Amino acid sequence: MSAIINPFIRGFNHLTTQRQLVITYEDDCPPAFRPLHESQAHLRDDEIRQHPCIFCDSFALITEGQTVPDVIEAQCTGIGIVRTVVYAVMANDTGHPMHVGDTYSAESAATLIHRLHFMTGHYSRCWEISSAHISRQALAGLGAMADIATPSGLLFEAFRLPYSHAVGVKLIATPWTSENLRHITDQNATQLRQEHIAAGLPGSLVNVLHLAALADTRILIFDPDAPALEGLPLHDHG
């Protein structure tokens, strides 16, 4: 399960902006990218560009016209020039930081984040995929659940689409991460998976539902005529 790249994940989550200094130092070294030390966060971009600096692995400090405390200066072993300032747009991919791209002003970064956020609502929260991604037994079980009016109590509900062989699932309280589930139930993600298995759900269905829910999908439709989703196993319904 952990080795599978989740094919339901689209877009970027938890977008933030980081102001980064682009520093050149030695002729045969590539530029270094460092954030400005918090003690100099008030400096404008024009007070940073083309100014000498000192830096370490974690931050940089402008030295021209600035007073740098000895205790902070002692942490810096690099000396260079700030060639420009970029505003890096960063995302969080299931707990791991991801560099989306660089812009050259705070306003441009804010515009990019606004557009990536799709402020009119969430997108890619509804998927129509081939029913061959779950076993025949799982598909039949979903159909039976859809025909029963009683809620499942398993953080998802099945439903039928009229005049169609498709079966849909509404996922509840997504994403199914331990952090999010703690605010809603007394379970973590592993315990929810174990509950689904204990309830008799086939493994193929459990895997697909949890991958989709981890990507904050809300509606998942299994249709025999829908295309396969690359990256998901297929089952023979022959």
Describe this structure in words.
- With 238 residues, the chain is of the alpha+beta class.
- The chain folds into two domains: 16-117, no CATH class; 126-223, no CATH class.
- It is built from six helices and ten strands, in the order E-E-E-E-H-E-E-H-E-H-E-E-H-H-H-E.
- The protein has helices at residues 70-73, 106-117, 136-146, 178-182, 189-198, 203-214, and strands at residues 16-24, 32-35, 52-55, 60-62, 78-93, 96-103, 126-130, 156-160, 167-171, 219-223.
- Strands 1, 2, 3, 4, 5 and 6 form a six-stranded antiparallel sheet that branches. A four-stranded mixed sheet has the order 7-10-9-8.
- It is elongated, with a radius of gyration of 25 Å.
- It starts with 15 loop residues before the first strand and ends in a 15-residue tail after the last strand.
- The mean pLDDT is 90.
Helix content estimate? 10-25%
Q: What's the helix count?
A: 6
State the end-to-end distance.
Answer: 25 Å
**Using only CA atoms, what is the Rg?**
25 Å
Shape summary: elongated
Please provide the count of β strands. Answer: 10
Largest sheet: 6 strands, antiparallel
On the 0-100 scale, what is the average pLDDT?
90
